[in-house]
Amino acid sequence: MSGSALAQSIINGLASGGIYILVALGLTLVLSIMGIVQMSHGEIYMFGAYGVYFLFASLGLNFVLAMIISTLVVGGFGIVLERFCFRPFRAEPDRAMIIAIGLILVLQNIALVVAGGTPRSYVSPFAGILHFGGVSLSLERLTIVIIGSGLLVALYLFIRMTKTGQAMLSISQDREGAALQGIDINRISAIAMFLGCGLAAIAGSLVGGLFGITPTMGGFALMKGIAVIILGGLGSIPGAVVGGLIIGLIDGVMPVLTTAHIAGATGFGVIILILLFRPQGIWGHE
Amino acid sequence: MKALRMGLRVSCVMSLLTLCVLVNAWADESKGDAKIIKIGAIVTVTGPAAAGLKDMADAAGPAEEYFNSKGGVTVAGQKYNIKIIAEDDQSNPQGALAAANKLISRDEVKFILAPIIPQNNIAISPLCEKAKVIHLRFHGVGGKEEINPDLHYSFASYMNLYNAPFAYDYLVKNYPQVKKVAIIPVDDPGGVTGSEFGEKAAKAHGLQVVAKQFYPFDTQDFNPILTKVLDKKPDAIDISVGIVVWGAGIINAARELGFKGPIFAPTPLGDMDVLASMIKGGPQAAHDIFITAPDMHSPKMTPMIKEIVPLLEKRLKTRARMDHTIPFETLVLLLSAIEKAQSLDTEKVVKAWENMKEIDTIFGKGRMGGKDLFGINHVVIRPVPLSRIVNGKVEHVGFFEKKD
Amino acid sequence: MNNKISFRLLGYGALVLVLFLVPAFGFGPYALHLFITMAMNVILASSLRFIFLTGQMSLAHGAMMTIGAYTAALLVLRFSFSSWLALLFAGIPGAILALIAGFPFSRLKGMYFAMVTIFLAQMVTLIGAQWRGLTGGAVGIFNIPGPDPIEIPGILKVDFSSKVDFYYLVLVITLISLLILRAIERSRVGLTLRGIQQSNSMAESIGIDTTSYKVLAFAIGCFFPGLTGGFYCQYVSAIAPDTFAFLFTIYVLVYMVVGGAGKFMGPVLGASILTILPEIARPLREFVPFLFAGILMLVIFFFPDGMVGLWRRLRVMAIGLMGKRVSHA
């Protein structure tokens, strides 16, 4: 394999890492920090994508406006989900998980019935390809990395610096203690779901524009999101960055070195290996 | 109070179950009409593959309407209308098996429009053989798992394996500077077999295959694979076998990484318009792409397609796509065979069908063949449409036909 | 007390008798196929519950079934094993994989454990498709022969040419599997597993090696889908790496939950009823998953003990009503 192919692979890997981090952000907040077993996170991501498609490509709204509306609507839907599907089972995560699985079936099939199975795509406003040093990078991917990074920093600052963010952190570390301190867990959970689902919607619209929008696109988001969280460490945002980059690089470089299957299996294998030696993930706390 | 709540919940469940039974019973009532041939169809409306295969199921109704309006089928002086009984296979072999069992045992069909997913069709083959039920699969890239001398009742409406020479003919004629080809098939039975034929055709045309790269079903990002492939400096890319999403993914990744050469596929990936809509970079990037798939709305299409398209658009209230023609393509063949045999006895139909030197297909006159590749003449050979994408628009190029 | 136990035994005995007599009622091939599918699902749901006894929600059942199916197929086709030996050994590779993977996995809880079993399942599919030499690649294996004929001169000759023969075979396999699972559950091992689910920390504090027990449960639970896969490949004669995909596993989970994960008979009930349901609901076509999800939600929200819990409550209510009548008499 030539040097330029390797260089391109690394760029591919970093860009993929950016995608995975973006995709994992919402899940990090909802699952990793707040402990809501939102297994249907991928379907929220998918709805965000269809929302933007509908508003931008069908109705012709401005792209940014379409994204804002879609994000708000999906975030709102997240609040409804939290209130009716997850709050009653906060003490029983197993049952919550099964509800989430039920949601996967329902949401996917709603998309299939309403939107049909034909894949959708739209012309991204960030069209264009950068060429430098023998390597290519599409503006669309670069935008994802930039927006992803921006949201990452914003989320990190939110958790560290705002009262609500700090409340979320205390809930994740010690739920009872947080309640005793007077933190309204219901309110905080609702906010977390709003933000988390909103982040998923943003991720869905951007990545959906890149790869195409189908009713089953959510599986990808869930898999990668969970992989990032497990690898990077539960409850950790810096961990998500490291996890995302590692998985991204594996996915970018491995297929060039070997077959695509072995590359895929390697990705999973690495996660399992890390779990063997460091069960809390790279950056996680026990 | 508690008993009342419990009672309410129980009645909820009971009514749900009763509803199911009622719906089932109501749907069955159509057994009354006389002179009807029941034709089973195993379609995919739920499960992971449903997104891509829903069109086929939707078009079953219009297809039934179309053929009945043309007088159905006449056997031994008796006119028959057809009735399609479609059952879901849930995207997996077990579902297909349950559907086939139901169609054969309860509905007593003798003809089945086979499931599209190869593994599902393979799963129902033993059952159909035993029950002497003809199952006709839509055109595929399959191999001997589905069509072989031991399967007397399995037929195929075409096999894309015959397309490769046509695609490569067009390639060398229009792009004489191409010397090296890369083949990128999906890793499934079709991809494995199809790419073999692609390789053969490439070599037969004096081209060198510099890469043959398989990718798994759930691939979203094609950049890594294309990086590897483009490192071998191909002049043309053969997508071989895949669906629209992957085809678009490969095209987009290739163009993004700077590949300017022709990208083609000797099998129809899906609807050409949908594919064209997914190519990034605007009309100027959608160049030099050609695929052996029909341009459904071209004025140069066959009379039958020209009749079907408006019917579909009227009934389904959506633009007609290639997959909508599947029930039409399979039914026209089946009905022609039944009429040739002048019998509804499947053994007789099979015998007559295997020997038909001429048969109506949606792309013109065809004939039975397949002995060369599969050992048995259970594959329909018909003209193959080729379309290309120029400036973001789909254009019909022509029809190719296999001689001999 | 003794009366209650023997009543129950009588009830189960009668049920088993009826099950053996089912083909005599003249059910057609479609119905028999459904019964066979039901039986397979019962084993799957019950073994899933076994793993769940320790609080681990495994979503690798589909992959285990795939491994079992391939094992049985290859043993017969490549190594000329008898179909019976192949069936016996079918569950072993999956169990061994579970044993190995179980250790790193056991450190994860809840949804994370579930997700990581999904990853394992994905790896199995990918490797299955990649290792063409062994598995036939994405094409899979077909023309797998059915079970070897059983011949007891003068008494029995079964050549598995009819569905009825397969029905009896799967019935026997199911009953044996259920008996084994039940026996383990009621043994000391089973009680320990239950204890771990109740409170991991308490179990640890009395010196129980919870990790080993969890892995053991995982391994035992993964043996049975392998066995079922072995039967499947002899029944359907074709398998591929993605035959038992994610949705398949999810449905098994639904059978278990709707039936009631708390009681042994829960998954049996759930699998039986929910196997039939999509068949009855065929006219609903693309809305069948909504029905499924709807029932799932209904059960989770309103009938947390599942159908088994519902059944119990109805029985209790019925006995209560009868009791009232008796006392008035």
What can you see in these coordinates?
The complex is a heterotrimer of chains A (286), B (404) and C (329). Helices cover 76% and strands 3% of the residues of chain A. In chain A, strands 1-2 form a two-stranded antiparallel sheet. In chain A, α1 packs across α9 and α2 packs across α8. The longest helix of chain A has 31 residues. Chain A starts with a helix and ends in a 9-residue tail after the last helix. Chain B is of the alpha/beta class and 404 residues long. Chain B contains 14 helices and 16 strands. In chain B, β2 and β3 form a beta hairpin. About 1% of the residues of chain B have low confidence. Chain C is built from 14 helices and 4 strands. Chain C starts with a helix and ends with a helix. The chains are: A mainly alpha (286), B alpha/beta (404), C mainly alpha (329). At the A-B interface, α1, α10 and α11 of A face α2, α8 and α9 of B.
List the helices and strands and how they pair.
The complex is a heterotrimer of chains A (286), B (404) and C (329).
Chain A: H1 3-33, H2 41-58, H3 63-86, H4 93-115, E1 129-132, E2 135-138, H5 139-161, H6 163-173, H7 175-180, H8 185-211, H9 218-232, H10 237-257, H11 260-277
Antiparallel strand pairs in A: 1-2
Helix pairs in contact in A: 1-5, 1-8, 1-9, 1-10, 2-3, 2-4, 2-8, 2-9, 3-8, 5-6, 5-8, 6-8, 9-10, 10-11
Chain B: H1 2-27, E1 36-43, H2 50-58, H3 60-69, E2 73-75, E3 78-88, H4 93-106, E4 111-113, H5 118-131, E5 134-137, E6 154-156, H6 164-174, E7 180-183, H7 189-204, E8 208-212, H8 223-230, E9 236-238, H9 244-256, E10 263-265, H10 272-277, E11 289-291, H11 303-316, H12 326-341, H13 346-354, E12 359-361, E13 364-369, H14 371-374, E14 379-381, E15 384-390, E16 393-400
Parallel strand pairs in B: 1-3, 1-4, 4-5, 5-6, 7-8, 7-9, 9-10, 10-11
Antiparallel strand pairs in B: 2-3, 11-15, 12-13, 13-14, 15-16
Chain C: H1 2-21, H2 29-52, H3 61-77, H4 83-105, H5 110-130, H6 132-135, E1 141-142, E2 150-152, E3 156-158, H7 163-186, H8 188-198, H9 200-205, H10 210-236, E4 238-239, H11 246-259, H12 265-280, H13 288-302, H14 306-328
